[in-house]
Amino acid sequence: MSIKTFQDLIKEVHEKGICQECGGCTSFCSAAFENVIGFKKPNSPPEYINKDACLECGICYYLCPQTNILDDELNKTYHFTDYSSMPYGFAEDVYSCQTTDEEFLKYGTDGGVVNTLLNYLLEKRIIDGAIVSKAEGPFSRKSMFAETRNDLIKSSGIILNISPHVDEVQRFSTYTRSIPQLSHYKFKKLAIVGTPCQIYTIRCMQNLGVTPSEHIEICLGLFCYHNFLFEKSQIEKFEKEFKIKFKDIKKINIKEDLILKIQGSNSKEKIIHIPFNKLINYIRPACKSCTDFTNIYSDISFGGLGSPDKYTTVIPRTEKGIELFQNALDKNVIKNLRLDKNSKETMQNLISKFSELKIERRKEFMKNLK
Ligand SMILES: Cc1cc2nc3c(=O)[nH]c(=O)nc-3n(C[C@H](O)[C@H](O)[C@H](O)COP(=O)(O)OP(=O)(O)OC[C@H]3O[C@@H](n4cnc5c(N)ncnc54)[C@H](O)[C@@H]3O)c2cc1C
Ligand code: SF4
Ligand code: SF4
Ligand code: SF4
After folding, report:
1. Whole-structure pTM value
2. What is the mean pLDDT of the chain?
3. How far is the CA of 225 from the centre of ligand 4 (A)?
């Protein structure tokens, strides 16, 4: 059997419109070889830079979340059997937590737990830095390397003093291409925060033992039902449809629906909820082909779904993840909301429901693919 290469990814993934732009293929290839493939345009799949330089090693094909070659191996490592028996993956338990740090809470997306744990890892020198993402404007984020508490505050959920240059940007997306950043931080111990497609590709790299995954100490995974993508023309449509000015969006959160914090004309802030079914035209197309909602291969997963306002839903999964979570609780770096049996069950059912909905959505989407 011949080895499948990037050329096959173009045919089987890009041309079908299901490239998740996770950056796994480019991240490995550019760390191992020079200038073979890379992202040339924003919000588009990677391309050949120099096709003649491709060694046809086939690793990029193995790392792609749309080829699913290594699923069986990852499932064994991360104790996952199937979605019908474990809709949100292997979990030690499900918690609702909040940081005890006022600043991380103030600027956090939900309970500020992710950045608090990263800060704890930095303080304890377990990591040298973390690959995270900071807001550049509404529906627009950029990857960044955080080495200090201050960097983490800058990367928190809220949009801090940003004047969005809507006119200068052709396409807005909530998706951040963070994985290709990995190769810039060789010789450092890293944590990475990522969506399920990003963590999947990192786990594939680790499974194959290929660079640059050896630097990653811990993977903090975010829940992800979908990301949004706005062509310039859609911004106007969105503004008209929902009577919102892009420039007035101060904060974005995704739980059961899209939650926007808007700066009103009288400088008062208001919260607007937009149901997902009204946003179908703004969802990144490849997200409709994605299955994993809760980031089943991460060390710990985080979301807002199921938790009260200003709390983060936390699912510790691996030995490393459980140890970090327990230490943070023991040292009072984060606190756990004691949920009674009914509330916990409601939360678990809601997470399961969204996991199942995502799987159903993929099934429908793939049926209609050529
Ligand atoms: C694109 C996206 C989609 C999401 N979808 C859902 C959803 O459907 N349901 C749900 O319950 N939760 C979803 N979440 C997770 C949720 O919004 C919160 O990120 C999570 O609950 C953690 O909150 P926190 O206050 O503990 O995190 P914080 O302490 O605020 O830290 C958040 C961390 O995430 C990093 N980050 C933010 N955006 C990105 C990104 N695009 N790529 C990589 N890192 C990033 C930040 O840099 C920061 O380090 C989504 C998050 C993102 C980024
Ligand atoms: S050199 Fe290997 S990893 Fe890079 S594009 Fe070619 S087949 Fe893919
Ligand atoms: S590895 Fe990621 S970026 Fe590369 S083709 Fe697959 S989905 Fe697209
Ligand atoms: S839904 Fe989330 S995890 Fe899936 S492809 Fe989109 S961004 Fe990646």
Report:
1. 0.93
2. 89
3. 7
